[in-house]
Structure to design on (260 residues):
């Protein structure tokens, strides 16, 4: 596992606190969508679960500037999902629907929302691997010629205190999974234990990767990733976009950077 993954160098932007971080990330996302839509359509965005990720979506919903975006030209995807039944309140999809997608109403066509399949044995989705395979097919259907996944315009990732991003946890096999766009995850240390995740190959195909992290409990992992700790120790090290890698953080989360 390389300690210096290829991709765009990181830009670290520090915000005063988690509330400002979520508001500023929402503003940044809205502005980016407007800019992207002035040049091309559709635009593909990957959402993240987690506190900052969902608070950011709620801030997008609350912003009058959301009307500047043509949501019919925006496709929403997920970096990972908790493998639970449809509508479970712990699913990242459910939380994103509650925070933003519901508020967008008819402006965002239902066919633009690409959720990872929920646990549904009757429909053939009995394991995280089933859901991962279904998502791989969905990604392929929207991939440019010669690719297996879309080159996401913006891919957002929360980060756990252990340095995980998406559902790629330290020391877990999925961190090193290659050759497939998605992976089923068993034994996640963060509940629930069963999850589905994009692989690093898919994450690193994105044009822009934005890591969002707030709070003192994230400080050791932020310091570790920014000092290029091995990806299997601190997975967030591996989060890079092809055109830009942004670390959108609060002051508490960068408190230990450079301390080692
Ligand atoms: O499904 C999930 O749990 C995630 O997508 C996960 O990767 C999350 O983004 C981080 O754990 C950060 O979450 P917090 O911001 O809540 O710490």
């Amino acid at each position: 596992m390389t300690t210096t993954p290829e991709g765009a160098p990181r830009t670290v932007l520090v915000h005063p606190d988690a509330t400002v971080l979520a508001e500023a990330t929402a503003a940044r996302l809205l502005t980016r969508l407007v800019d992207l839509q002035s040049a091309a359509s559709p635009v593909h965005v990957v959402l993240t679960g987690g506190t900052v990720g969902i608070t950011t979506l709620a801030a997008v919903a609350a912003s009058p500037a959301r009307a500047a975006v043509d949501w019919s030209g925006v496709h929403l995807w997920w970096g990972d999902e908790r493998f639970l039944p449809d509508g479970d309140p712990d699913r990242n999809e459910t939380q994103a629907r509650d925070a933003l997608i519901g508020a967008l109403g008819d402006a965002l066509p239902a066919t633009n929302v690409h959720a990872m399949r929920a646990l549904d044995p009757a429909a053939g989705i009995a394991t995280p691997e089933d859901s991962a395979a279904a998502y791989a097919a969905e990604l392929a259907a929207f991939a440019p010629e010669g690719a297996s996944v879309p080159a996401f315009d913006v891919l957002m990732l929360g980060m756990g205190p252990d340095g995980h991003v998406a559902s790629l946890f330290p020391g877990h096999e999925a961190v090193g999974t290659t050759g497939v766009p998605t992976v089923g995850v068993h034994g996640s240390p963060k509940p629930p234990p069963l999850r589905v995740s994009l692989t690093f190959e898919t994450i690193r195909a994105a044009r822009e990767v934005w890591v969002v992290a707030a709070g003192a409990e994230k400080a050791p992992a932020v310091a570790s990733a920014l000092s290029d700790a091995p990806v299997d120790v601190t997975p967030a090290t591996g989060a890079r976009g092809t055109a830009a890698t942004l670390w959108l953080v609060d002051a508490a989360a960068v408190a230990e950077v450079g301390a080692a």
